[in-house]
Design goal:
The protein has nine helices and 21 strands. With 399 residues, it is α+β, with helices and mostly antiparallel strands.
């Protein structure tokens, strides 16, 4: 297996900068996901690694080989990079059987028939499709086609596996099942994998590390839980779920440990403690993120003996969602979104108190003026909705 290293990689289309000065290292055997909204540059980045796009500047290495260096005029064609690729459309040949589809990359490399037969059988067994070898491709379900596409990408033992939205054509239940199965295969093989998706849950459940991108730039790299719980900025915070994003100013700052600080903040009609990654000067503006599942609802006379943030308000709306019940509480700050247990029932108009523990309220720097102009303006305590749509992409056949 090999690592993948991108150094100051950019891709311009005329005056449009699709990817800007991107630095990333995917270690051997690691599963890294590029995550972001439509147009953020994640698919373009994957295609540059694949050799389907040529970087305008910077350098890309796979293992010990430089496969693209714009300054030195080096560009290794896609077919010589020894990469396995799985795209959204799967690109299964309809006129071939499962066996012939998986065997195709070996046939174009002119491998002996005996070797092809052995390799295909071994790979089909790996994805639990050995009983379907002679089945025509059109007779397969969506999940089975996805397994065949993965088998075809793995059969020639590539250095790196690249996947662009490979689960998006499946229904929700099958997407979850196939994601788990694919992750198990990847761990078993120790295959270095670079994965692209706009689905936050998919990225969280599959990845060793997540790379959040926006407008061609990396916003944050980290373990899934760290990205979710401790976003680096408002853009990352807003992309995951529907967090409450609260404008505030810092009134006090003290160090908790080597990784966190405790802030005292004041907003419009509220104040209290929260946590942050770095020390913040007094008076600085911050955005305090509260995930809906971290807020608690209690009666208005709730005891105030726990450190955290509190709001008084009235239940404005509730929605039953199966395992949870979404509750909107109208406070003097604005609307507050809360995910409560579905067993709890709330009556519209009830007076309630909203409580958020200190460790569940995370502060990030407030966006600067020119950055804020690029985003839809929201209420001070409104839920930020992610712009999630698949990148426009070409349909390519893996080989």
């Amino acid at each position: 297996m090999s690592n993948v290293v991108l150094e100051s990689v950019s891709r311009n289309f005329g005056d449009f900068v699709a990817v800007s000065s991107l630095d990333l290292r995917v270690n051997e055997g690691e599963f890294v996901t590029l995550l972001g909204p439509s147009g953020c540059g994640k698919t373009t980045t994957l295609r540059m690694v694949a050799g389907l796009e040529q970087n305008t500047s910077g350098r890309i290495s796979i293992g010990n080989e430089i496969v693209s260096d714009a300054a030195r005029g080096i560009f290794v064609p896609s077919e010589r990079r020894r990469l396995g690729m799985v795209f959204q459309s799967y690109a299964i040949w309809p006129h071939m059987t499962v066996f012939e589809n998986v065997a195709y990359p070996l046939r174009v490399r002119r491998r002996p028939n005996a070797e092809i037969k052995e390799a295909v059988a071994k790979t089909l067994h790996l994805v639990e499709m050995e009983g379907f070898a002679q089945r025509p491709a059109p007779a397969l379900s969506g999940g089975q086609q996805q397994r065949v596409a993965i088998a075809r990408a793995l059969v020639f033992e590539p250095k790196v596996l690249l996947l662009d939205e490979p689960l998006s054509n499946l229904d929700a239940k099958l997407r979850l099942q196939m994601g788990d199965e694919f992750r198990a295969i990847q761990k078993r093989l120790g295959m270095t994998t670079l994965y692209v998706t706009h689905d936050q849950s998919e990225a969280m459940s599959l990845s060793d590390r997540v790379v959040v991108m926006d407008r061609g730039r990396i916003q944050q790299i980290g373990a899934p839980e760290d990205i979710y719980r401790f976003p680096a900025n408002r853009t990352v915070a807003a992309f995951f779920g529907t967090p409450n994003l609260l404008d505030a100013q810092v009134t006090a700052c003290s160090r908790i440990d080597g990784q966190r600080v405790r802030l005292e903040v004041v907003g419009r009609g509220w104040s209290g403690p929260c946590e942050a990654a770095n020390e913040v000067r007094l008076g600085q503006s911050v955005t305090v993120m509260v995930r809906p599942e971290d807020a608690r609802i209690a009666s208005i006379d709730m005891a105030a003996d726990e450190q955290g943030l509190r709001w008084s308000g009235r239940v404005a709306h509730t929605t039953f969602r199966g395992a949870t019940r979404s509750v909107v509480v109208e406070t003097n700050t604005g609307q507050f979104n809360i995910d409560a247990s579905a067993c709890n029932k709330y009556v519209i108009g009830d007076d309630v108190s909203v409580f958020v523990p200190q460790q569940a309220a995370w502060a990030v720097p407030a966006p600067v003026a020119n950055e804020a102009e690029g985003h839809v303006r929201r209420g001070r305590a409104s839920a930020a909705m992610p712009a999630g749509a698949a990148d426009a992409r070409s349909r390519n056949t893996s080989s």
